[in-house]
Specification:
71% helix, 2 domains, single chain, Serine Threonine Protein Phosphatase 5, Tetratricopeptide repeat
Length: 192
């Protein structure tokens, strides 16, 4: 869906140096909404917004560096821009920086830092961070394994329509439902 602000209006607004308008214009170019898709032009506008300290501009510039849209792919620059936006409380940046730390993309792999970032965004309602934090608890990555905590975070994400979380929650519940049967079988007893 195209945002209601016209391209002409955005161009007039960005000329005044408005970082939110610059970021919005960058998004229009990145998505090809009302203009031809042009990642290089998008990065130009994201950069202007980011350099003014606009958190979403910093996030979008970081994403551009992560995926290589309009710039060379540079995970370390992606992490730098994500950090600036995350430090301002941008939940998406906290989640994506957490993924950088989890996977060692552009930063040293530090699972405890990933968990810290996921938790910060998850506690404030970011469904992707809730899902990622659940995975950490489920697999014991950066935290002791805790299936109950994993289930709570999956449920929180699923309640926000996160399909992956809903599927994982259903699988977890199915495994829990079958667990007593498997325990009986493992002890050499036949199921009742």
């Amino acid at each position: 869906m195209t945002p209601p602000t016209s391209i002409d209006h955005l161009h007039r607004t960005v000329e005044s140096g408005d970082p939110q308008a610059q970021d919005n214009l960058g998004l229009r170019y990145a998505r090809g909404e009302g203009v031809a898709q042009d990642y290089v032009e998008a990065v130009k506008w994201f950069s202007l917004a980011a350099k003014q300290g606009f958190a979403w501009g910093q996030y979008h510039l970081g994403f551009s560096y992560e995926v290589g849209h309009g710039v060379e792919r540079e995970p370390s620059k992606a992490a730098e821009w994500y950090r600036l936006a995350a430090d301002q409380g941008n939940l998406q940046a906290q989640n994506d920086l957490g993924m950088c730390y989890e996977k060692g993309l552009g930063v040293p792999r530090q699972l405890a830092e990933a968990v810290k970032l996921y938790r910060s965004a998850a506690e404030r309602g970011h469904d992707g961070a809730q899902y990622n934090l659940a995975a950490c608890y489920s697999e014991g990555m950066g935290v002791p394994p805790d299936k109950d905590a994993a289930r709570r975070w999956l449920k929180a994400a699923a309640e926000q329509q996160c399909e992956e979380a809903a599927e994982a929650l259903a699988q977890l519940d199915e495994a829990r439902r079958k667990a007593p049967l498997w325990r009986r079988l493992c002890r050499g007893r036949k199921p009742a």
